[in-house]
Amino acid sequence: MATRDVEDIFADILERAKALDPASTRKWFEKLTLLHLDGGSLAIGCPDEATVQFLQDKCKSSFTRAAQQITGHLVAVDFSVIAGQAGDSSRSGARPSLRLHPDYTFDSFVVGPSNRLAHASCVAVSQSPGNTYNPLFVYGSSGLGKTHLLHAVCFEAQRRLENAVIQFLSCEDFVNRFIRAIEEGNLAGFQSQFRTVDVLVIDDVQFLREREHSQEEFFHTFNALYNNGKQIILSADSAPGRIPSLEERLISRFNWGLVTRIDPPSYETRVAIVQKKAHLRGLSISDEIAGYIARKVQANIRELEGALTSIYAVATTTGRPIDLELARKAMDGQIEASVRHISITDIIEVVTSHFDVRLADLQSKKRSQSITEPRQICMYLARNLTRHSLGEIGGHLGGRDHTTVMHACNKINQAQDADPKMSELLRELTKQITQAGQS
User: Fold this and answer.
1) Which of 75, 147, 77, 159 minimizes the C-alpha distance to 109?
2) Model confidence over 3-25: pLDDT tens digits?
3) What Rg value do the Cα atoms of the chain yield, rounded?
4) How many angstroms separate the CA atoms of 260 and 84, rounded?
5) pLDDT greater than 90 at residue 415
6) CATH code, 97-261
7) Domain residues of the chain, as ranges?
């Protein structure tokens, strides 16, 4: 097979992969290179480790399907960093443990009045870890950019301090690793892993609530790092003093450095975010369309991304250019109709039917995985498909408070980011709920 033929096939595979999974399509797909295509094997070169991780986690299925559809053969797809690139994981022992999202950099973060201090603080910390604001505590509602900033700090610190040891993980992961270390009798190894780093970044630290032993361990980890001048960065959905069941000594330490809040973005900031997100996906949209999206979606940046995904999907399937009429059609189907007609009862009926559980189970105090996951999915879908408050949603599901609902939404957001099957499940449930709400 001639080289030109192979390159053409690879180009076709890229285009097909984009069509199969619009939500994960990115402009930087253009930077991917063909390393090998022969004998049922496709090797794709990537500029850095973050790109490899994104493609492995979110795109492997679509690339595999695309390769098999284009070639007509069974094809195994593999992603790897091109040798010698800046992101080559062999340059840093800490780098392979970091799972960073390639979109979440300072360059791609839109700064506005609602997040200016948080952004400036994260930039300062990334340039001089341990010397500026320590600890740095960023809080705000789900979907406002906290996780984006934490990834950006890690990217920048990694770039500036090549040999720095950085640990970035969710609080839930920290707790789970701590529990596993106790079960395996390896607490010393756990403590060595987290108390000897240069930068420790913990997302959603409110997950520590009501976990006494984990709070005790985190307290000593915090002290060890702080006393050695190491940087600590934390995020949560509320200020330290408003996290339920958090020990006073932890609240006090979280307040030692800088505590900064991210608020919902203004209309002008939302327009800029839409344009930035569109550019990352290789889309060209007018200011009129960006303004229309920004007026329709007001509180959550993830919903702005969802609107762009819907618009891109409609444009791809219909072959039409992206104009205001197409944007209205895509968004009216996804957002307005669902919000106008869907009730929490619709959501509960679809979810309980899918998981074969009873409403009484969801409203109970049961914490088994078979009950907890459907309950959290109900909360997540109610938050995104209705206009009910967090307290109202919690009231429908056993009288739970707003922090429980917020935790559930964060948990499902993380799950769908990590698992394509969860994203597909949520799309299917949303489709069923929308149809039920419109009937």
Assistant:
1) 147
2) 558 888 999 999 999 888 887 88
3) 23
4) 39
5) no
6) 3.40.50.300
7) 3-89, 97-261, 267-340, 342-438
Instruction: List, in sequence order, the alpha helices (H) in 161-266.
Output: 171-184, 187-195, 212-227, 248-254
Determine phi and psi for 42, rounding to 5 degrees. Answer: -120, 115
Q: What is the pLDDT of residue 341?
A: 55
Cβ neighbours of residue 216 closer than 8 Å, sequence gap 6 or more: none
DSSP track, 404-418: HHHHHHHHHHHHHHH
Q: Which superfamily, per CATH, for 342-438?
A: DnaA protein, C-terminal DNA-binding domain (1.10.1750.10)
Instruction: Give the burial class of 358: count Cβ atoms within 10 A of its Cβ; 0-12 exposed, 13-18 middle, 19 or more buried.
Output: exposed
The two structure tokens encoding residue 238: 């509320």
The domains spanning 97-261 and 342-438 adopt the same CATH topology: no
As given in the structure block, the two tokens for residue 186 are 């390896």
Cis peptide bond upstream of 265, omega within 30: no
* Residues 345 and 382 sit within 8 Å (Cβ to Cβ): no
Calculate the average pLDDT of the chain. 86
Residue 387 CB coordination number (10 Å): 10
Q: Among the residues of 60-100, which ranges form H helices? A: 60-71
CATH fold of 3-89 reads: GMP Synthetase; Chain A, domain 3 (3.30.300)
Tens-place pLDDT, residues 303-319:
888 888 888 878 877 77
Q: Torsion angle, CA of 109/110/115/119, rounded to 10 degrees?
A: 40
Structural contact between residues 170 and 266, judged by C-beta atoms closer than 8 angstroms: no
Q: What is the pLDDT of residues 224-279, one digit of tens each?
A: 999 999 999 999 988 998 888 889 999 999 999 999 999 888 889 999 999 999 88
Four-way CATH pick for 267-340: 1.10.8.60, 3.30.1490.20, 3.40.50.720, 1.10.1670.10: 1.10.8.60
Which residues are 201's β-sheet partners?
168, 233
Distance from C-alpha of 149 to C-alpha of 375, rounded to nearest angstrom: 29
State the Cα–Cα distance between residues 347 and 118, nearest whole angstrom: 35
Average pLDDT on 42-56 reads 91
